């Protein structure tokens, strides 16, 4: 059920479901476990989505919708192109901070949830590309190919998303995004 059509009770339940899954992952949970942990009925839980798998996907989508809104709000509060890129990627890092390793691993192992994360990663890479192009057009960044910088950012974001970068560097996803912000801003600054 789209979040705009949820009752206050359903919205609260979705927030609690998201918090639980972010903290503890979802692969090991049964619907009965969720009902017990969230102190609700199966009927109430199934009003959010029609199956356990759909509940997971809906929770992941809900999380990323909220994260996107928070990130864009942060960008809207900045004016300078370098600050906008930094604000964007640092806000992404902040939004990823609450995601437990168990949740990230479960998401990687569950194709429908992984697809949501991959789609959001692509949207984030497109947004970085747009912010770089705006900075180049405004003369705040040196003449770089925004599409190329965006592709480098996208490749790095995909490695972060898949956990590959963390395995090789020991960085959490949020720390990796913070480092990416620093690297990109330094690379494009005039």
Task: Describe the overall structure.
It is a single chain. It is built from 10 helices and no strands. It is mainly alpha-helical and 190 residues long. It has a domain at 57-188: Tetracycline Repressor, domain 2. Helix 5 packs antiparallel against helix 10 (173-188). The model has no long low-confidence stretch (mean pLDDT 91). 76% of the residues lie in helices and 0% in strands. The protein is elongated. It has helices spanning 8-24, 31-38, 42-46, 52-76, 81-96, 101-109, 111-137, 146-161, 164-169, 173-188. Keywords: DNA-binding, Transcription, Transcription regulation. Pfam families: TetR_N (PF00440). Residues 7-67 form the HTH tetR-type domain. Residues 30-49 bind DNA. This is TetR/AcrR family transcriptional regulator.
Strand segment count: 0
The name of the CATH topology of the domain at 57-188 is Tetracycline Repressor, domain 2
How would you state the average pLDDT, rounded? 91
Listing every helix as H and every strand as E from the N terminus to the C terminus, the arrangement reads HHHHHHHHHH
Terminal-residue CA separation: 47 Å
Helix-and-strand structural type: mainly alpha
Shape: elongated
CATH-derived architecture of the domain at 57-188: Orthogonal Bundle
For the CA atoms, what is the radius of gyration?
A: 18 Å
In what range is the share of β-strand residues? under 5%
Q: What percent of the residues sit in helical stretches (DSSP H or I)?
A: over 70%
Question: Residue ranges: pLDDT <50 for 5 or more in a row?
Answer: none
What is the CATH C-level name of the domain at 57-188? Mainly Alpha
Main sheet: strands, sense, barrel: none
> Can you tell me the CATH superfamily of the domain at 57-188?
Tetracycline Repressor, domain 2
Compute the number of helices. 10
């Amino acid at each position: 059920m789209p979040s705009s059509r949820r009752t206050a009770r359903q919205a609260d339940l979705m927030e609690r479901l998201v918090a639980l899954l972010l903290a503890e992952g979802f692969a090991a949970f049964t619907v009965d476990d969720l009902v017990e942990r969230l102190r609700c009925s199966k009927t109430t839980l199934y009003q959010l989505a029609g199956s356990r798998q759909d509940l997971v996907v809906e929770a992941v989508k809900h999380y990323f919708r909220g994260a996107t809104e928070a990130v864009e709000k942060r960008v809207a509060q900045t004016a300078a192109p370098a600050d906008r890129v930094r604000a964007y990627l640092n806000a992404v890092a902040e939004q990823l901070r609450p995601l437990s390793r168990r949740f990230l691993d479960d998401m990687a192992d569950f194709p429908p949830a992984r697809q949501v994360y991959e789609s959001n990663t692509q949207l984030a890479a497109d947004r970085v590309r747009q912010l770089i192009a705006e900075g180049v057009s405004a003369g705040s960044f040196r003449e770089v190919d925004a599409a190329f910088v965006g592709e480098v950012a996208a490749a790095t974001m995909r490695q972060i998303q898949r956990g590959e970068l963390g395995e090789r560097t020991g960085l959490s996803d949020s720390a990796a995004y913070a480092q990416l912000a620093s690297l990109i801003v330094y690379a494009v600054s005039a």
